[in-house]
Amino acid sequence: MATACTVWSMGMDPLVAHQRAQDTFAHVLVNVTSDQLSSPTPCPEWDVKALIDHVIAGNQRVVERAGGQVAPLPEDLGAAHRSSAKAAQETFAEPQALTRTYQLPIGELPGTAFIELRTSDLLAHAWDLAIATGQPTDLDPELAEYVLAFSKQMMSRPGLRGDGRPFGEEQPCGDERPAADRVAAFLGRELS
């Protein structure tokens, strides 16, 4: 698993990357229409609404895993995402948040690894949402290259890929594709 020194040496502060991933998801979310909420996504178990709910709940879990109280969220999906994203970012920005250990379903992880997982999850689901709603997938190329680099390090940890695991098997994707497409394929999404 990458350490803080490894992550920062990749050229982006993990807090900046996390905020950019939240902003990228928000940028795609703002273009989702109410008639698209029941549309399928590249995640077969979720439609668009369930995918958005998953991202918002993931933000709330950051707060919970750090021992904080989750605030009630507005009903509007955009406002709920903004509120939960702000709370997750503030939690990761607290003193010692990136050096402490968190208990996650996949085991104990340092804060630097937890923020990496959240950042990759956000970017991957922004890509899923863009695909599901017919939006461009060339999402923040610099952030996507950063996510691809630490995702390759992260996947050296056993037990993350396959049926019933957080990530599928890597899918084919040419180097000419946008970086976010390459992230999606590396994390197991099939590209068209």
Describe the protein's architecture and organization.
- With 192 residues, the protein is mostly helical.
- It has one domain (11-186): Up-down Bundle (Four Helix Bundle (Hemerythrin (Met), subunit A)), CATH 1.20.120.450.
- The chain has 7 helices and 2 strands.
- It has helices at residues 4-9, 14-29, 48-65, 77-93, 111-132, 141-154, 179-186, and strands at residues 101-104, 107-110.
- A two-stranded antiparallel ribbon has the order 1-2.
- It is globular.
- Residues 1-9 have low confidence and may be disordered.
Structural features:
single chain, 192 residues, mainly alpha, Four Helix Bundle (Hemerythrin (Met), subunit A), two-stranded antiparallel ribbon, 7 helices, 4% strand
Give me a quick take on this structure.
With 192 residues, this protein is mainly alpha-helical. It contains 7 helices and 2 strands.
| Order of strands in the sheet with most strands | 1-2
Which geometry do the CA atoms define?
Answer: globular
- Give the helix level as a range of percent: 40-55%
Number of domains: 1
Map the helices and strands.
Layout: H1 4-9, H2 14-29, H3 48-65, H4 77-93, E1 101-104, E2 107-110, H5 111-132, H6 141-154, H7 179-186
Antiparallel strand pairs: 1-2
Helix pairs in contact: 2-4, 2-5, 3-4, 3-5, 5-6, 5-7, 6-7
